[in-house]
Amino acid sequence: GEASLEGFDHYMLKEIYEQPEALRNAMRGRLDDENATAVFGGLNLTPQQLRTVERIILTGCGTSWHSALVGEYLIEDLARIPVNVEYASELRYRNPPIENNTLVFGITQSGETADTLAALRETKRKGHRALAVCNVVGSSIAQAADGGVYLHAGPEIGVASTKAFTSQCCVLAMLALYFGRLRHLSFESGKSIIEDLRQLPNAVQQALTCNEQVRDVAKKYQNASTVLYLGRQYNFPTALEGALKLKEISYIHAEGYPAAEMKHGPIALVDEETPSVFIIPRGTTYDKVMSNMEEVKARGGPVIALASEDDPQVRAVADDVIAVPQVTEFLQPIVNVVPLQLLSYHIALLRGCDVDKPRNLAKSVTVE
Ligand code: AGP
């Protein structure tokens, strides 16, 4: 068939493990060392047209909306183009004023999500160019868009999206590099971004080795009724995605929040029975996340920390530490989401849930 389990118990687990390869496929032929940029065959817009883009709108649903949020950080950081992220289901009816020279990207694994398709059609109707970042070749959204980038992640069967998310983030990083190099980004910076991208599949491979340990953590927390996921900057969307994975397949209530936003309300949820997953790799907001983590600890909340390898400071505070390889900040969601995917997988299994076909959900949502 199109895809088989190849020895894995579930498609979701297989697809989690396919991520290093999916990332290699997303990057294949797209990194241009000579010009220190990325290249795309299907944008159908000239470099000159792309240079005049003054705003980018990224739209999608669910996990694809989360990768759009990562894309916002990436494109604003690396290309310095203002970005708005929109839920496709809201964008399609909101009729916001959109300036000229705005480029819209629909982000979608299936290419069949009704709201994303409608949002793209609606923005096109208003005269804006709409591109797709899509996995399924020839899908409705791929056809409706003016052009776009395929993920080449291979079929994703598990209802909970995994490899599509990391591939989308990777494609958005390459797009950010490309847009940056059409503008202000130096040759040297372009080269170092390419080097970082090249190390990514190995870092994800290494992150997968935490599987056994994550299973132990899952055993410990499998009976929780609420789990909080907290991170900042690039790891804020990672927190949202971790929470969505847990909700979808284990039916445990979970919330993702920017860690500092906790004190404005959600910290009231913290008690001995409510674990918080802190995403706290080394980086610009490390100290800030550390104090957010200490606040939760001080209120008796169990803390699971997702940290960089060899971090005694985190170990001193957290109840459980899952270590991931340290990568440059803008690629951290791709590495850090891996243990979160595994955590939800193991918790769902322990609770006897059908991980590949969770209740009430369909792989692609073709109704609005
Ligand atoms: C992800 O785990 C979900 N099943 C869901 O949120 C999904 O990402 C969303 O429906 C969008 O799908 P698409 O990427 O195929 O457009």
TrEMBL record:
The UniProt record lists the keyword Repeat:
yes
Domain named SIS is located at 46-185, 217-358
Look up the signal peptide feature and give its range.
none
What is the organism of origin for this protein?
A: Rhodopirellula maiorica SM1
A Gene Ontology annotation in the biological process aspect, one of them, is: UDP-N-acetylglucosamine metabolic process
**Subunit text:** Homodimer.
Reactions it catalyzes: D-fructose 6-phosphate + L-glutamine = D-glucosamine 6-phosphate + L-glutamate
Gene Ontology, cellular component aspect: cytosol
Q: Name one GO molecular function term.
A: glutamine-fructose-6-phosphate transaminase (isomerizing) activity
**Record function comment:** Catalyzes the first step in hexosamine metabolism, converting fructose-6P into glucosamine-6P using glutamine as a nitrogen source.
> What stretch of the whole protein does this chain cover?
251 to 618 of 618
Which keywords appear in this protein's UniProt record, sorted alphabetically? Aminotransferase, Cytoplasm, Glutamine amidotransferase, Repeat, Transferase
Catalytic residues as annotated in Swiss-Prot or TrEMBL: 363 (for fru-6p isomerization activity)
Q: What is this protein called?
A: Glutamine--fructose-6-phosphate aminotransferase [isomerizing]
Say if the entry is tagged with keyword Transferase: yes
Name where it's found. Cytoplasm
Q: What is its EC number?
A: 2.6.1.16
Specify the superkingdom: Bacteria
